[in-house]
Amino acid sequence: MKLWIVLILIIGGVQCDGFSDQVFKTLNIGEGNACYRTFNKTHEFGCQATKDNENGLIVRIDKHEDFKNLDSCWRSFYPSYSRKFWALVPVDLIRRDSISKLKSSECLAGIVLYNSNQTMHPDEKTTAASHDGDCPNAASDYYFQNNTEAYCERKFNSRGSITPDGLMRIDWRVQMIFINNSTDLDVIKRCHSMFNTPREDGSTGYPYCGMSFRMTNMAAGNSEICYRRGKNDAKLFQMNIDSGDAPQLCGAMHSDNIFAFPTPIPTTPFNDTHHSSKYMMVTSRMDSFGMIPEVSVGEVSVLTSIISVLAAARSMGDNIEKWKKASNVSNRNVFFSFFNGESLDYIGSGTAAYQMGKSMFPQSLREDRAHIHPVLLEELEYVLEVQQVGVAEGRKYYVHIDGDRYDQDRTPTDKIMDKIERGLRSHGFDLEKPSGSQRKVPPSSWHSFAKADSKVQAVLIAPFKEEYDYKRINSILDKNQWTSDEKEKAVQEIEAVATSILAASAEYVGLETDDVVAKVDKKLVSTLFECLITSNFWFDCDFMQKLDGGRYHKLFDSYGFNEKSTYISMETHTAFPTVLHWLTIFALGSDKETLNVKSEKSCSHLGQFQAMYTYTWQPSPYTGNFSCLKSAIVKKVMVSPAVDPSTPEEEMNTRYSTWMESVYIIENVNLYLMEDSSFEYTMLIISVISALLSMYAVSRCSEATFIVDEGEPAAEGGEPL
Amino acid sequence: MDISKLTDVKKVDLCKKYFLIGACFLPLVWIVNSFWFFSDAFCKPVNNHRRQIRKYVIGSIIGSIFWIIVLCSWEIFFQHYRSQGLVWTDFLTFVFPTGRV
């Protein structure tokens, strides 16, 4: 009988968990909405839950003056409360003058960031709000690694950076979450206003509205430590009952990169690696980041430039026969690369440069079949990159080249720059050619190739000269509130840059630049601007919905998969590579040879055993009708050789990116009512007394106390019932 | 086992056995031996048997102290370097701490 009582008490105790929904108001926080740990070879950055930063009273910092309360730990509002606070802060208040207070505060448990509803004041656009450092990718800069320049000598982002090293490179003592869901935000605000807002007489009192949140990272230290600890031979006694393998503590940041070849690469037998062609790579980066890494739209960091490259690719696709003919004659080809992870020490381009050096780009060689001739480093002549399109002050652009390499053979580069100038001028923009300090290339993908090959030339088209004019590169706030005039000018800039890309490419392959070859579809530029920049999500506009054709599914409860994010991540849980892949296929794919293909299955069969071409069953974004598009587009996951288990000889080589992310466990936000500690002590004493009384009562009972059936003792004595 | 009921001869034999077993890299046995026979070695009138017990107990105490110094030194040394996440310390670690080096 006593056993039954114990059992009932245990079950009762377990069921007490059912009261949690009456004690807590729980808000779901999806993957990517909270600050977590990231690493490079030497440091750890980001946030980690500890017992000190888990719980806190909710306070609001709505305007800059409210930071004074942070200095005094809100003592005038909550004199009887001496523990920590969770502060609600709109992201536009994260500025140079406030960040040091948030970093150094001893009374903050965490920060809840949210987007302010207020329209951005024109002056705020000029406020420094870049979450990147003064010198983006300074450690992997070609000139620094080549010892021709000191670390962070050219501070391109010094006007925009909130801190010199960048907000992503801070090891925070507080936790941080980003709440995008207005309902959840309202719940927190309401809880604050009901319990924590001072009364009319200025007084406050228990109970207060408190919040708890916990985000636990598995890894610590730096990427070298966590990478090593994830290996099976890291420990003398490796025991893992579940799988036998060492549990993953962190992962290399990696994602899809997209390479598109408008003109086919020659197919050659295996081992034949003679230099068959020369190449110009037209490139633009796919990624950006913010203070909470995944929360960054990357409008100007990424999207405007990508639209200009896509528009150029579409124009090339429309006149592909002319381009093919010119490439065949000149033996020079242009191809497009959209690199991912460029804002984190050039993950994509560094890997591509490595693979080119190993004859593995764009595909690894296979002995069992003819393969496309690999693009080798010595075949790559130019890297033409565009950056930060759409925010030029005035109507002026700049071209950046490497002076030393340029001086070796000026003529072809001069011709290309002339064409870029003509392309921009045709749309009313000026180009300033390089001089003096401009003879060194700003942070760009070229640095990866320059480190691997001494001849590859850079041509960078950008609206800045010595420092970025745009002050929101790699930021949660990298989303402009475009006025109609600004939007129109941005579209013009994108069109002008696309034209200059086409003109430079045509010059390179030896194609006469005429109105047809260099004509950019302005309507397409406007449409892509609306869909990728103005719309709230990638598939909100009609154009993208038709391009999607029901193929996109939000599979994961993560920020990157459900919101517009251009972060690279370690799980490839972002929609953007898929979006860009489909847009590239739309730009360069053709159904001329596949008009008779009427089903997805037969389309996929065409792609089997193909070395060069892929066949994709994709709808037209104009009509929504599916067709089988033939293209030479590779969507390829690139893992930096420094953190790729398949390239152990390059392990932690700082020539390549060493960025990794911790595996983490994210818990929900719980809102609850905080009582005075004296209340808690009182309740504790009452519970101890009641427990003692219970024990006293139970100990006085004998077995007979609980016997209800009078026949039971007799039955226990052996008598039949 | 209640050693108070043993004869002195048997106590010597037991103490010697524990001393020899402890010499096989088993410092805990030496520590037990030290405590177990301490009163026989030092708190009772001396005779020939107790002199022998005292010899083994002193040996056990010295050995125990030696081991305590060695183990404490190793622990301080190892923990100091383990918190730096070095290769050799990781190799000797049984469980990596979550979220800490």
Automatic annotation (TrEMBL), chain A:
Residues 1-16 form the signal peptide. It comes from Caenorhabditis nigoni. GO terms for biological process: Notch receptor processing; Notch signaling pathway; protein processing. PANTHER family: NICASTRIN. Its main location: membrane. Gene3D superfamilies: Zn peptidases. Transmembrane segments: none annotated. InterPro entries: Ncstrn_small (IPR041084), Nicastrin (IPR008710). It is found in: Membrane. Keywords: Glycoprotein, Membrane, Notch signaling pathway, Signal, Transmembrane, Transmembrane helix. The lineage of its organism: Eukaryota, Metazoa, Ecdysozoa, Nematoda, Chromadorea. It is a single-pass type I membrane protein. Belongs to the nicastrin family. This is Nicastrin. The keyword Protease does not apply.
Automatic annotation (TrEMBL), chain B:
GO terms for cellular component: gamma-secretase complex. It is found in: Membrane. It comes from Caenorhabditis nigoni. This is Gamma-secretase subunit PEN-2. It is a multi-pass membrane protein. The chain crosses the membrane at residues 18-38, 58-78. The lineage of its organism: Eukaryota, Metazoa, Ecdysozoa, Nematoda, Chromadorea. GO terms for biological process: Notch receptor processing; Notch signaling pathway. InterPro entries: Gamma_Secretase_Asp_P_PEN2. Keywords: Membrane, Notch signaling pathway, Transmembrane, Transmembrane helix. Belongs to the PEN-2 family.
